[in-house]
Amino acid sequence: MEEVYAFLKACETYYLATVDGDQPRVRPFGTIDLFEGKLYIQTGKSKDVSRQMHANPKIELCGMHEGRWLRVQALAIEDPRIEAQRHMLEAYPSLGNMYQPGDGNTEVFYLKDVTATISSFTEPPKVYRF
């Protein structure tokens, strides 16, 4: 889990895919946090991505860094606790002008049933499940 976290942090921007009915949706994302032994992402409840993850929690992440790429399959599970929101926003102070813990819009999701694969053209893939 820590290698996956470090990889996503190093990417700075990765891509999150959701399902919207029968249409895939992909957008750039940048938040990743390690809290209480789980990987977390953050968004706003007012966004389509939030609605999509609540309707169908199956997501995928994909990012590339230094010639290697990471694919993550997971379920996104909302954690409504203020402590989880606070931890995320302390890791990303630049979001403070848009989000505050407990503001009714800030939303964090932890990743469950994760399969993460780090690949490259020069090394065999590394697969992690947690």
How are the secondary structure elements laid out?
Layout: H1 2-11, E1 14-20, E2 23-29, E3 33-35, E4 38-44, H2 48-55, E5 58-65, E6 68-79, H3 82-91, E7 106-120, E8 126-129
Antiparallel strand pairs: 1-2, 1-5, 3-4, 4-7, 5-6, 6-7, 7-8
Helix amount = 10-25%
Report the C-alpha radius of gyration, rounded. Answer: 14 Å
Main beta sheet, described? 8 strands, antiparallel
Rough outline: globular
**CA-CA gap between termini:** 7 Å
Count every helix, treating DSSP H or I runs of 4 or more residues as helices. 3
**Can you name the CATH architecture?**
Roll
And the CATH topology? Pnp Oxidase, Chain A
Overall CATH class: Mainly Beta
Q: What would you note in describing this structure?
A:
The chain has 130 residues and is of the alpha+beta class. It has a single domain (2-129), classed as Electron Transport, Fmn-binding Protein, Chain A (Pnp Oxidase, Chain A, Roll), CATH 2.30.110.10. It has 3 helices and 8 strands; from the N terminus they run H-E-E-E-E-H-E-E-H-E-E. The chain has helices at residues 2-11, 48-55, 82-91, and strands at 14-20, 23-29, 33-35, 38-44, 58-65, 68-79, 106-120, 126-129. Strands 1, 2, 3, 4, 5, 6, 7 and 8 form an 8-stranded antiparallel β-sheet that branches. Strand 1 and strand 2 (23-29) form a beta hairpin. It is globular, with a radius of gyration of 14 Å. The model has no long low-confidence stretch (mean pLDDT 98).
